[in-house]
Each structure stands twice: as C-alpha cells, then as structure tokens.
Design goal:
Distance between the termini: 80 Å
Oligomer: single chain
Largest sheet: 4 strands, parallel
Order of helices and strands: HEHEHEHEHHEHEHEEEH
CATH architecture of the domain at 156-258: 3-Layer(aba) Sandwich
Structural class: alpha/beta
CATH topology of the domain at 156-258: Rossmann fold
Strand order of the largest sheet: 2-1-3-4
Shape: globular
Helix content: 40-55%
C-alpha cells in the first residue's frame, strides 16, 4: 500500500514538473513573439547597387531611392518623399558619384555621422574587401561571413569556367567600369575605353590592337562603334535590376553568362 502511494506521489510530481516546464516554454515563446530579434538599423541606399552591397554586408531593412528601372540610376532626380525617407532612416548609404544624394542630404539636413560611403566595384576580389569594410562599420560581420562563403563558391565556379574557356588567350577592349572584373576573369585586356564617348583617335588605337571581344557597360555604353561582325560585343551590368537581378551574386552570374562562360 505504501509503495502504491509513493508511486502516485511521484507521478503527480512528474505531471506538475511537466506542466511547469511547459508553462515556462510557453511564456518564453510568447515573449519572443512580442519582442522579436531586432532587424537592425533602417537604411536608405542611393541605388540598387549600393543596396545590394549593404544587404551582402548584413543589413535587413534597406530602401532603394533610385528606381531599379532606370538605366543609369545615378542620374535620378529625388522626390519630396525621398527627403522624408532619408531624414527618418538610421543611416544613408551612397557611393559618392550620385549627384542627387548631395542635394537630398542638404534638403533633409542629414547629419554627416548618418552618411556612409560605399565603394562600388563588382570584381569579386574587390567586393570581398569593400563589403567586408561595410560589415565592419555596421557590426554585421557574422552575416557577412555567410555571404562571403557564397562569394567564394561563385569565385571557384567562375574561375574554373574562365580557365576552361581559355580567357587568357582572348584579347579584350573593356569599358572602364568593368576592367577589374575582366582582369579578374583572366582576359587579356589590351585596351580600356570610356566612360566618355570614343574619339576617332581612341577608336583607331583600339582597332590597331585587334581585340576579339568588346566588353561595354549597359548603363552608359560608349563602345558601340567597336561592335563589328568579326568580334563579340557584350554589355555587362553593375546595378541590379536588368534580367531580374537583385543581389550582387545575381549580377555576377548574369555577366559571366553574357560572356558565354556558362
């Protein structure tokens, strides 16, 4: 009889302990729902390129000012609503060459400490450093570590493809903004042109070097005169948007696909 009572007491205690534990977990879940993990600072980015770099660095809340539909986003004219967005954001990100941002900052009277300059370049080796520097300043190094592993996977894939296509034997004339990317892929860069329109002298000089591939910039092309039947002509992108590109890695894959490496 005594043994039965002890067993009953133990069962009751176990039930009470289970109920208590369930209550603790339920309370914790409730508190988590009411107080979710902070999403980080609210950021305003000048263009989709700057925004993509911020997201690669680990920012979660990024609003892009210049519409992605614009062919050359730095030429955007800001709207009154953009002033409010910039004024209420925690940080404002830009690359330094967007004239509208200077006007916007003045109009919104934004403190200099809220403005972060981002170095834009889509050569993977440069991207690693510039996105890393941004993550360092934002305190988002853990998120950056995740992204950089993805970048490394892309690098290995792209460089393997470049080797298979023997890019080192392909003579290239490349637009100024894509020269580092072309060199990273191993192309034999014989001439760099633009971003301004080619003069007759520059055109003749490039023709004398007989490139078989012309890499131009879709956002502000200046090498159309170099496009002939006996060579390949492509227009790469920097700003996400075209071809449903959204991230930096999207842009990189889009570009090597245009180059025929996939």
């Amino acid at each position: 009889m005594m043994k039965k009572k002890v067993t009953n007491v133990l069962v009751i205690m176990l039930l009470l302990l289970t109920a208590s534990s369930f209550g603790v977990f339920a309370q914790a879940a409730h508190e988590l729902a009411e107080n979710p993990e902070p999403a980080g600072p609210v950021a305003v980015a000048s263009t989709s390129w700057v925004a993509a770099m911020a997201e690669a660095a680990g920012l979660k809340q990024v609003t892009v000012l210049a519409p992605v539909e614009l062919k050359h986003p730095p030429e955007y004219d800001f709207r009154p609503s953009d002033v409010m967005r910039a004024a209420t954001a925690d940080i404002v990100l830009w690359a330094g060459y967007e004239a509208f941002v200077k006007e916007l900052v003045a109009a919104a009277d934004i403190d200099a400490e809220k403005i972060i300059l981002v170095s834009t370049n889509n050569a993977p080796d440069v991207l690693r450093k510039s996105v890393g520097a941004l993550a360092e300043s934002l305190g988002t190094k853990e998120a950056y570590a995740v992204w950089t592993r993805q970048l490394t996977e892309f690098e290995q894939e792209a460089l393997t493809l470049a080797k298979q296509h023997q890019t080192d034997k392909i003579r290239v004339a490349v637009q100024f903004h894509h020269q580092q990317f072309a060199r990273w892929l191993g192309y034999d860069v014989v001439s760099v042109f633009g971003p301004n329109e080619l003069t007759i002298g520059q055109l003749q000089d490039i023709e004398s070097k007989n490139p078989s591939l012309i890499i131009d910039n879709w956002h502000n092309p200046s090498g159309q005169m170099l496009a002939t039947n006996h060579r390949t002509y492509v227009q790469l992108i920097n700003f996400p948007g075209l071809g449903e590109t959204k991230s930096l890695l999207d842009v990189l894959r889009y570009n090597i696909r245009l180059l025929g490496l996939y």
